[in-house]
Structures are given as structure tokens and as C-alpha cells.
Amino acid sequence: MQTNLSKEARQLPRAEEADKILRTCVHCGFCNATCPTYQLLGDELDGPRGRIYLIKQVLEGAPATAQAQLHLDRCLTCRNCETTCPSGVDYHNLLDIGRAVIDQAVPRPASQRLLRQGLRALAPNPNLFKTLLQIGATFRPLLPRGVEAKLPHDLPAPGERPVPRHARQVLMLEGCVQPGLSPNTNAATARVLDRLGISVIAALEAGCCGALDYHLDAQAVGLDRARRNIDAWWPYLESGAEAIVQTASGCGAFIKDYGHLLERDPVYAAKARRVSEMALDLVQVLADEPLERVCAATDRRIAFHCPCTLQHAQKLGGAVEAVLTRLGFNLTAVPDSHLCCGSAGTYSITQPELARQLRDNRLNALESGHPEVIATANIGCQSHLNSAGRTPVRHWIELVDQVLR
User: Fold this and answer.
1) Which of 45, 151, 160, 233 would suit a FRET pair with 36, their CA atoms being 20 to 30 Å apart?
2) Strand-pair partners of 280
3) Domains of the chain
């Protein structure tokens, strides 16, 4: 694709990157075939190719509009199109660049600003989030159906976490909403790792990964959170921690991007690269460990929903399924397993109608094999799929924890 960036666009810090990505696109349209929003809406501008054209036009000097902003907002950033693209277009980075330019030029309505600012204030604060969840549970019968559905139901208690005692040690990102929405996930992870001779150590200064701010009109704030996490983890990495483990694939995908996002930062560039290299999804840690020695065999019938951030962003599709199959779990077939469930960070809140359609379509596919439980690898997907009140959804490590000998 030929480009001619405007004088203003050429001054952007990531202008060269945007130009390179645009030139990679051959506008073949293969991406639309696997784009969830294009499948629902049938609008070229609600598919990757159309969004690329919108960003190109703005970067070449066309005025940014609220309509263009809406089409970019509707993108789930699922990155399914990147998996499909024969030309290797780095779509998500182009989208980040385009969104920042358009959001700066097009003020949002007050209601949208309040919603986004509220999400940014609430979600990265685990203690506040858990407190509000407890209040919500108390007044559950009085809440609107849409709000009540977001509250967790029948969650297992987290149980005890082992005291660090092994020479092998890893850090673990605790997450923002996961401790409130699924408190057993990280505890189960610590127990399974402990049985394998790996201790989880706490870096209490580490907080939100930064993805939420970064994708809600506050990229600079998101990068500041990344810098704080790097500072928090760095002493432990220097002391021999083997990895920074993520149990939420959405957080993991963003942390693995620290090196790219901070490559122009003279203070943090080298450390960010190291942190990205040390960041591992939980399945990457467990894939080569002798789980069969510490887990009993099981034939429990489950369906696995592979989050977009695991299969398309981290390129780990099939990895969790392989681990679960090794342990004897009976995995049902899931049609169109490449598609998004509609969670996509805060998408289920900012685009609720589209998110519900995608959720119900995904549940129909997941339930087609009649599983007793659905497993996944991301708290956003888990919470969003559970909000339908159908087949229970759990993090896959909780199922592994249940069969520990």
C-alpha cells in the first residue's frame, strides 16, 4: 500500500513504524474473513482492512471524525486478523497509533469520558474493586440484570498459598480484577508450582500491567505503570527469579510488549526488553514440567476456550490443550475456536451489545460438545462467559489443582 503521511503525522514519535505497517498491507481482505465484528456487522469499516484505511486517511491529513473513532472503538483488538494475514501486517500496533491520534483530535461525549475514567480508576485498584464486589453481592437482588450478571457466582475459596521454600523461584503478576473475580486462580497456581519444586515470590510493589489505561485513551499512564512494574521486578530478576508468570493471558500479552512499547525510552528500553523476555504465560512454565508425577489421571469432560491474547497475541494456541490432554482431561471439540468471546478487556462494558452477541455465539460453540465445565486462561474471558449464567467457567489451573495428589 502506498502512503504519503502528512507533515503533522511525520512528527509523531511512531510515524516511521506506522508508515512501515501501512506499506505492508496489500489490502487482500483475508483479514475480514476472521474478524468477529465484520462477521456481525458486515461493514467494511468494521473490519481490519477498513480500519487500516481509516487510519491511513487520518495520517495522510484527512480530518479525524467521531465516526472513524467509533469504528476503531468497535475493534476488539483480538488480533485474529494478524494470525490470518499473509503479509504479516502488525495491525494492533497500527491501531494503537491510530487510536491515539484520533482520540486526541475527537473529544468524546461526557458519558463516555466518565465511563472510561471510572474504569481506569476502579479496575487497577484490587482492594477497591474487591470492596465494591462485596457490596454488590450484598445488594445483588436490587441490582440491574446487566450489573448483577457481572458479579461472580459460586467461586471456590482460594485456600492456602504455600510459603516460598524452593531454590527455584518465579514472580507472579497478581492482577487487578482477578483477585476479586476469581481469587482461587493464583492460589491454585502457587500450589501446583510448589508441588513441582517452584516457589512463587511476591513483588508487592508491582501493580496493574498497564493494558487497561493504555487501551482506554491513556497510553502515557499505561506506560508509566509498565515502568513501575519493571522497577518492582528488577531486583528479583537480578537475584535469580526464573520468570515473571502471568495467569491472565491479557496481562501477559501486554507485558510481553513492554520491550517494544518502551524501546524509545533511554532509561527503560534495555530493562523492558529483559522483562518481556522473562514474561511467561503459566502454560509456558508448566509445559515441560512433570505434571503427571504430581497429578492424578482424570477423564473429566471439559471445553477449552483459548483466549485471543493467548492464541493470536502470544501464539500459544493449543499449548493449554496439550497440557490438559496429557493429564487425561476429555477435551470436547469447539467449532470456530479462533473466534473472540467478546470480553476483550473492557470491551464488554464499552460495547455491551456486540460483546453479548459474541459471548452467546462462543458459548453455543463451547457447549456443543456438552462439557461439564468450560476452562479458559484469562480472567476477562472467564468473567464474561460466566455472566451468561450457563455452563460454569473456570481458569484451567484450578482444574489441574483439583487433581493434585
Assistant:
1) 151
2) 245
3) 9-105 (1.10.1060.10), 291-402 (3.40.50.1860)
